[in-house]
From TrEMBL:
Domain Macro, residue spans: 1-171
Origin superkingdom: Bacteria
Name this protein carries in UniProt: RNase III inhibitor
PANTHER family in the cross-refs: GANGLIOSIDE INDUCED DIFFERENTIATION ASSOCIATED PROTEIN 2-RELATED, MACRO DOMAIN-CONTAINING PROTEIN
Length: 172
């Protein structure tokens, strides 16, 4: 596996890195889960900046400054709502990871931290989402040598164990 990929357990809002990715909703106007945590930590300027973006389609990604966060930027992406797997969910989730990395590379950002997009309120089965995340990021990084580090930020020991197995090339 690409040595630029790492997984860890952390609150993503505490990371001092070029960009953290937000698992947002299409309005980009805040919500619960990691989205709520990012807005609380970044302060009200983030909501004002998101308002100016005019929303985001599922599978797309848009950039704002990080404001009060230790991260320089936030890349907002909108994952798919899990509806059983037959509604293009995998293609949309892969697009979130790909688009976020291209947005980062366009800004010459070298380090990006992802939460486990769609695996909370949006209900995507965790192991399948993690496998898709690792495969998509590895494929995309092959096109983006300027990106030096990608973190998969988990929020539970069990979730981290899944990522560590995938990154080690072991079966789940
Ligand atoms: N740091 C890292 N990971 C976190 C944190 C945190 N501080 N908090 C939660 N997670 P979710 P979704 C993990 O529900 O499924 C929002 O209301 C969590 O354990 O935040 O994409 C939006 O506005 C889970 O693995 O995002 C949307 O409406 C992961 O973050 C909707 O939820 C994603 O869970 C998006 O749903």
């Amino acid at each position: 596996m690409d040595s630029r990929l790492l997984a860890l357990n952390a609150d993503i809002t505490t990371l001092a890195i070029d960009a953290i990715v937000n698992a947002a909703r299409p309005s980009l106007l805040g919500g619960g889960g990691v989205d709520g945590a990012i807005h609380r930590a970044a302060g009200p300027e983030l909501l004002a900046a998101c308002r100016r973006l005019g929303g985001c389609e599922p599978g797309d990604a848009k950039l704002t400054p990080g404001f009060a966060l230790p991260a320089r930027y936030v890349i907002h992406t909108v994952g798919p709502v899990w509806r059983g797997g037959g509604h293009g969910e995998a293609a949309l989730l892969a697009s979130c990871y790909r688009r976020a990395l291209f947005v980062a590379a366009d800004r010459r950002l070298a380090s990006v931290a992802f939460p486990c997009i769609s695996t909370g309120a949006y209900g995507y089965p965790f192991d399948a989402a993690a496998r898709l995340a690792v495969d998509t990021v590895a494929e995309t990084l092959a096109l983006l040598p300027e990106i030096e580090r990608v973190l998969f930020v988990c929020h539970a020991e069990r979730d981290l164990a899944v990522y560590l197995r995938l990154l080690a090339g072991r079966p789940l």
